[in-house]
């Protein structure tokens, strides 16, 4: 495991240099002190998406001091904040790290030279409390301790602290003034942990603070219990396709030549859908490789703008660095220095071209530009741990907790969904024009495809929207057959009743499960069918809906509702009449709508028995599962709620 430590003496003026060096460094862990960062600098400006970042900027957003810990997402990290004596003014980070079979408690600390004795000892006591709390783990403490400016009393207390915690000081790399400010403390012995001068610093070296490379070598270790269990245990553990490496020309050609004549012989819609998916996925598997399942074994992914020449030179650079460390030959060190210079030059040029492309996309492709901006603003902080019912949950337990919470809002009792009773009750009360959908045709299909957003997320079937949109002419005939078979049988396909749920924070990101709301994603083919049905039905019911209804209607929304309300209120006030308004907010209103009552409402609108039967099938046994942090829960039923 490779760790880089550096006191960077401020990053705000070195962001571009730092980012480019990180992208090619392929480090497991990066620890920094004196970052001088404020909230105006986002994690995405400093690190690519392959790093999890933990920051502690100085209290007050003053732009001085500060510590940072970044861990590759192939490793595991859990931030620890509930340590006795941990206060916001302390520039301290505690994290449990599991990386390459090495597990330990990591602490990054910065102690300013102007600290008084009590402040210094208070920080040491806080670190001591953390080490005692996690006494079953090895520990690694890195940071700028500024011991040379401390009193004799503090130095004595520091030695007592090291003896009590069984810590050894491993760093012997002196600065240009022959001093030692940055310390590497650990209970690993000198055979297990070694500190070397950093030959490839992330920013130009400060004269008081050399860059350090820390190597931890253990013959065997276990992953830290509770950090993450394997996603392979998930009930929906199916690898995603790697569309970045797809052979699209061959794929699209194969889909265009696919013979669907056997599909046209099916008389059961569920069998037809299963056959369709089997044929489609068989072709996709030929031309699109699978992604790796486990996040614990990810390969390092270079930025998209890296050229093959850059990657080749990076590999040569690290080859000679490895040889130099093994054999100590100056020849390898000189070649390493050459390739280091070469890589930095190539990266600077490539990044410059990348930025020009981004700037050009403001006009040519604004979506691409704003996606870049959004990525830069993102925090590289994966909320792996959540809180549910007073306990911390992570991994598979977190997915199950979200599923239990989201599923609890629905009715437990299965609805009857008796479309015959609904039809009879409606006929006894009024006589309305029948609303029906006998079949859908190519014009409906073209409309649905036109409305389909190619970048929308794929559903549980993993079929992406762009594939269906690009191959619409080839898929039109089999899909229309399935859609019309569903209408004839008045049976909605079972596979399309399943949706994937992603938890999204309601407001500020938090850890409690109740602070999230579910966003359900349907399969793309289900979206297309629903769009076609919506278009056919809406044309028949728009003229019978009340004028005051604004929800779920085309060209109407909360804004038009508010305009109508304000217009009425203003007119009444102009006439000097009193206006009283009562506002209601029903909790989980849409999730708790009775499916049986909904079916009766549709019958009263004039839905034919065949269409009612289709909607009863649509509502029956609908299921969802939660996906969070690569883990997926078991299915749960949604026995109530709006369509």
UniProtKB/TrEMBL annotation:
Using the record for this protein, list the coiled-coil segments as residue ranges, or answer none.
Answer: none
Give every Reverse transcriptase domain span: 485-643
Q: Which InterPro entries match?
A: Endo/exonu/phosph_ase_sf, RT_dom
Among Gene3D superfamilies, the record links this protein to: Endonuclease/exonuclease/phosphatase
- Extract the signal peptide range: none
For this entry, the protein name equals Reverse transcriptase domain-containing protein
Question: Can you name the source organism?
Answer: Parnassius mnemosyne (clouded apollo)
């Amino acid at each position: 495991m490779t760790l880089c430590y550096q006191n960077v003496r401020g990053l705000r003026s070195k962001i571009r240099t730092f980012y480019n060096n990180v992208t090619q460094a392929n480090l497991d862990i990066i620890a920094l002190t004196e970052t001088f960062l404020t909230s105006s600098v986002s994690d995405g400006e400093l690190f690519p998406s392959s790093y999890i970042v933990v920051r502690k900027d100085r209290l007050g957003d003053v732009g001085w001091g500060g510590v940072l810990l970044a861990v590759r997402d192939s490793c595991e990290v859990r931030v620890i904040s509930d340590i006795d004596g941990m206060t916001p003014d302390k520039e301290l980070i505690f994290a449990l790290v599991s990386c390459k079979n090495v597990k330990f408690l990591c602490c990054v600390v910065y102690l300013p030279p102007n600290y008084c004795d009590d402040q210094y000892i208070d920080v040491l006591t806080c670190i001591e409390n953390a080490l005692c709390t996690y006494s079953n783990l090895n520990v690694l403490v890195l940071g700028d301790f500024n011991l040379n400016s401390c009193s004799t009393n503090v130095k004595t207390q520091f030695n007592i602290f090291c003896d009590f915690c069984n810590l050894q000081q491993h760093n012997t790399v002196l600065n240009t003034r022959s001093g030692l400010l940055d310390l590497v403390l650990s209970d690993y012995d000198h055979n297990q942990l070694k500190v070397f001068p950093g030959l490839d610093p992330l920013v130009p070296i400060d004269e008081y603070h050399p860059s350090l490379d820390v190597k931890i070598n253990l013959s065997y270790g276990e992953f830290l219990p509770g950090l993450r269990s394997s996603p392979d245990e998930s009930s929906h553990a199916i690898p995603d396709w790697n569309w970045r490496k797809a052979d699209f020309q061959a794929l699209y050609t194969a889909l265009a030549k696919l013979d669907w004549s056997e599909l046209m012989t099916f008389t059961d819609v569920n069998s037809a859908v299963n056959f369709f998916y089997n044929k489609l996925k068989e072709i996709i598997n030929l031309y699109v490789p699978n992604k790796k399942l486990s996040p614990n074994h990810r390969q390092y992914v270079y930025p998209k703008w890296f050229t093959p020449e850059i990657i080749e030179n990076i590999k040569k650079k690290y080859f000679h660095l490895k040889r130099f460390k093994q054999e100590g030959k100056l020849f390898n060190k000189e070649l390493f220095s050459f390739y280091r210079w070469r890589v930095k030059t190539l990266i600077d040029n490539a990044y410059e071209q990348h930025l020009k492309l981004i700037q050009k996309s403001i006009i040519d492709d604004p979506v691409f530009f704003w996606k870049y901006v959004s990525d830069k603003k993102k925090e590289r902080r994966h909320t792996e741990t959540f809180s549910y019912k007073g306990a911390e949950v992570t991994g598979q337990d977190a997915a199950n907790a979200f599923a239990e919470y989201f599923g609890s809002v629905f009715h437990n009792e299965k609805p009857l969904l008796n479309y015959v009773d609904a039809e009879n009750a409606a006929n006894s009360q009024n006589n309305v024009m029948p609303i029906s959908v006998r079949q859908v045709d190519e014009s409906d299909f073209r409309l649905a495809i036109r409305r389909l957003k190619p970048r929308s997320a794929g559903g549980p079937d993993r079929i992406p929207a762009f594939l269906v949109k690009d191959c619409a002419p080839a898929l039109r005939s089999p899909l229309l057959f399935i859609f019309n078979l569903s209408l004839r049988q008045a049976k909605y396909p079972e596979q399309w009743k399943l949706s994937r749920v992603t938890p999204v924070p309601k407001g500020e990101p938090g850890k409690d499960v109740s602070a999230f709301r579910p966003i359900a994603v349907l399969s793309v083919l289900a979206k297309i069918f629903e769009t076609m049905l919506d278009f056919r039905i809406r044309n028949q019911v728009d003229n019978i809906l009340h004028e005051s209804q604004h929800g779920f209607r085309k060209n109407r929304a909360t804004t038009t509702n508010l305009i109508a309300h304000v217009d009425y209120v203003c007119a009444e006030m102009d006439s000097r009449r009193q206006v009283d308004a009562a506002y209601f907010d029903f909790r989980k209103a849409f999730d708790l709508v009775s499916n049986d009552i909904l079916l009766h409402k549709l019958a009263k609108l004039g839905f034919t028995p065949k269409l009612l039967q289709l909607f009863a099938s649509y509502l029956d046994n609908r299921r969802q599962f939660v996906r969070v942090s690569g883990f997926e829960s078991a299915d749960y039923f949604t026995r109530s709620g709006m369509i």
